[in-house]
Every structure is written in C-alpha cells, then in structure tokens.
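Worked problem 6 (solution included).
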Amino acid sequence: MRGLTDRQREIIRLVAEGHSNAEIAERLVVTVNTVRIHLKHIYNVLGVSSRTMLAAKAARGEIPGMAEGEPQERHPDPDKMLPEDRRTSDQNHP
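Solution. The predicted structure is:
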C-alpha cells in the first residue's frame, strides 16, 4: 500500500476544516478535478468512503503523518498564497 503525499495530507487538513472541493482547489491553485483525484486516492489508501469518515479519522489522529485532533499545520509559502491569505499571514508574522 502506498502512503500519502504532503499534498494529500494538506487536502485532508482542508477537508477536516470543512472546505469544499472548489475552495480547496482555489487555495491550492489546482483544478477541482485534481482535488477529486487526490480524494479518490486518499479514500482508497485510508479505507474510507466519504468526507465525513475522512474528517473523523483525521480528528481521531488515525492518519499517518498528522497529529491527533489537529491535521498537519504548515507555515504557508507566500509564493503559493492567495492575496487575502497573504494579508492575514503578514498580520500574524511581523
């Protein structure tokens, strides 16, 4: 069984936060279809069949490489951020 990529763990984090596929695609600067393909792989690897099951598994800390109750948080790359995210990040990191 293959593991999850960093990108797939990021998608899991965003799903667990309640973001839609369209919101995830916009945030990661990919197409909605790319998000769907990643989710299909994620579901297969983790043995889940829905976003709800995926979010619950993430919240329980049952996803390798992600902390319990708090999916992997990363420091944002300013070059990959949307303008509104960049403003928020700048305010939080003087």
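Discussion: The first helix runs from residue 6 to 16.
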